[in-house]
Amino acid sequence: MQKIKLAADEFLALKRVAVTGVSRSPKDHGANFVYRRFRDRGYKVFAVNPNADEVEGDRSYHALRDIPGGVEAVVIGTKPETADATMAECADLGIKHVWMHRGPGEGSVSPTAAAYGREHGIEVIDGGCPCMFGPTADPGHKVMCSMLKMTGNVPRKA
C-alpha cells in the first residue's frame, strides 16, 4: 500500500475514466459532481448507469464493458452493495485503478470489493473523493479531505 496522495496522483494521471452511479436526477448526487468535474477538467470521462441512456447531457453506458475502447480507471459512485459486482467487472476487463467514492457519509466503499480488487492486482482507493486531490481538487474539497482523514472516511494509504 502507498500513501493516499501518491495513489491519488497515479489515478488522476489517467485520462480515460468511467464514473458509475451517475444519476438521471443529479441534484446533490456525488457521482454526478465527480463526473462533471472530470469532464470540466479535460478528462475523457464516461458515465455508467444501467438504467439510463443519457445523463448530464451526455451518453451513458449500461456497463463498463459497453464503453468503446475501454477505460483506464473507474470511480465507483454507487451504493456499497453494488461495488462488489463493479469491482469484479473491473478485474474481468483488466482495469487496474478503482476509486470507491466516500465523503462524510457511507459512500460507495465496500470492504469486500476492496479486498477482491487488491487480490486481483487492482490499485484500490477505498474512500475520499477524487475532487480532494490534484487537478480535480477545489478549496472546499481540500478542507473536507483534511477533516475526513481524521474520521477514516479518507484513507491514509491505498
UniProtKB/TrEMBL annotation:
It comes from the Bacteria. SUPFAM superfamilies: NAD(P)-binding Rossmann-fold domains (SSF51735). Signal peptide: none annotated. Pfam families: CoA_binding_2. InterPro entries: CoA-bd, NAD(P)-bd_dom_sf. Residues 11-102 form the CoA-binding domain. This is CoA-binding protein.
